[in-house]
Amino acid sequence: MTYKSIAETNNFIVLDKFTKYSEVNEAPAAYQTEAALEKEFIQDLIHQGYEYLTNLNTQEAMLANVRLQLQSLNNMEFSDGEWARFVEEYLDKPSDNLVEKTRKIHDNYIHDFVFDDGHIQNIYLVDKKNITRNKVQVISQFEQKGYHANRYDVTILVNGLPLVQVELKKRGVAIREAFNQVHRYSKESFNSQNSLFKYIQLFVISNGTDTRYFANTTKRDKNSFDFTMNWAKADNTLIKDLKDFTATFFEKRVLLNVLLTYSVFDTSDTLLIMRPYQIAATERILWKIKSSYQAKNWSKPESGGYIWHTTGSGKTLTSFKAARLATQLEFIDKVFFVVDRKDLDYQTMKEYQRFSPDSVNGSESTAGLKRNIEKDDNRIIVTTIQKLNNLMKSESDLAIYQKQVVFIFDECHRSQFGEAQKNLKKKFKKYYQFGFTGTPIFPQNALGAETTASVFGRELHSYVITDAIRDEKVLKFKVDYNDVRPKFKSIETEQDEQKLNAAENKKALLHPERIKEISQYILQNYRIKTHRTQGNNRGFNAMFAVSSVDAAKCYYEELNKLQKDSDKPLKIATIFSFAANEE
Length: 583
Prior knowledge:
Number of strands: 19
Keywords: ATP-binding, DNA-binding, Endonuclease, Hydrolase, Nuclease, Nucleotide-binding, Restriction system
EC number: 3.1.21.3
Family: Belongs to the HsdR family.
CATH architecture of the largest domain: Alpha-Beta Complex
Strand content: 15-25%
Largest sheet: 7 strands, parallel
CATH class of the largest domain: Alpha Beta
Distance between the termini: 38 Å
GO molecular function, one term: type I site-specific deoxyribonuclease activity
Mean pLDDT: 83
InterPro entries: Helicase_ATP-bd, HsdR_RecA-like_helicase_dom_2, P-loop_NTPase, Restrct_endonuc_type1_HsdR_N, Restrct_endonuc_typeI_HsdR, SWI2_SNF2, Type-I_R_enzyme_R_subunit
Helix content: 25-40%
CATH topology of the largest domain: tt1808, chain A
Strand order of the largest sheet: 15-16-14-17-18-13-19
Shape: globular
């Protein structure tokens, strides 16, 4: 039985295909008042199945609506006295701040409530298992007083609780103004006493032509505008127009998934809402595990895949979410998160524990790894490839070899194509393996026969450096090419890595004449390239990357020799870092 991937695409919230409103309709009126924009937005939400509550504009009305929604969700009824007690003890506890309220949505969303007659029932604020059971409603122009009275544009309620706040500006007004307004409301009234608006998880700002979303984190300073995000399609095409954003992001299932599945409330009390490419990658990994399991097609490259996400784009959060959601699949026994080298193991453990302290178990040694595998409550295991390989070599018959397991490799480098990979294929009978990388190996840059795709399976999602630069999520870079030195032209333009590694060519690259010329160029151009010519002499430092320890020593000596008589020599230090561990 074969599965066609396209049949399942409707289950993704980050869409592969979406025809933008502007492509099939004439452009909206260039001038549209804020009120008209708001009205149209609410109308679009109603068409998508949101219930519009026209007269909900006081705190009392909001609480009465929460009561109705929670009674419906939990299939029970509160007496007036019980409801007052539930609000006071749990729902709107006077001492609660933003952080406690957010924790109630993510971790403490089930409350054991004792009714007047003595029986106890779990009261759920949200249903995370069956997402579509949560009721979404929309209200507008809710007024609330803190230090100042503010009126909020559009609020989305989930089971009666305000979880999403939308601030609109008319077309042509800078979107930053909507951001600044949210910032002001946060200081003035959202968090006033007994305000259910402390439950807000997500802000959406729009001026009609640009629409962005961002998490309601406690740390909000002026620079955090950089953390606002556009929604996007799976190919990273941005969805900016409010019409298109409403049709995709505000589709009920999508919004509920973003709020309840694709967000992380970490141990430092920061709410992280995933970016579209992080969600897309996570969804496609989970889809791959499920479809391969259904087709009984495991332990092959086609039962896994790799994610090409550029360095600095938040791979750890994506891999953590994928690992965490994979452990919730009833047929998966364990998820291994595999990293290279000991120092990374500790670093990744700390990162993972930042997201969720109890879901992760690292191990000090191969024996520790074995103990961790045998514990039932341990669903995610962080280990290094070296430890995993030693375990497979020393233990011929572990129960885990027969179970359903997922492997997620943090950086699928060449070092993971070797012995460990062969042992893994031999030992584990039912596995699904995924690799994250910022630098995939393709046939044209492979040293041997193996490529990232031949080991891990096809590319499931990509978010490359050009996407990140366009989204202003990483710094731009500029490349200047230098004229090749005539004497060394043939070696400097050589593409073949094997030839470059040949002994005589290594010698040519380290020829004293060549090193001297390059060192002189660096010293002559350093001030210009690091922006130190602006008078105040403040600029950037620079890093010079070379191919080997031998090269580093040669350049270090040459640069110092050339500066021997300089009255302001550059300070030069050498840093040696490990290569990825070979077997």
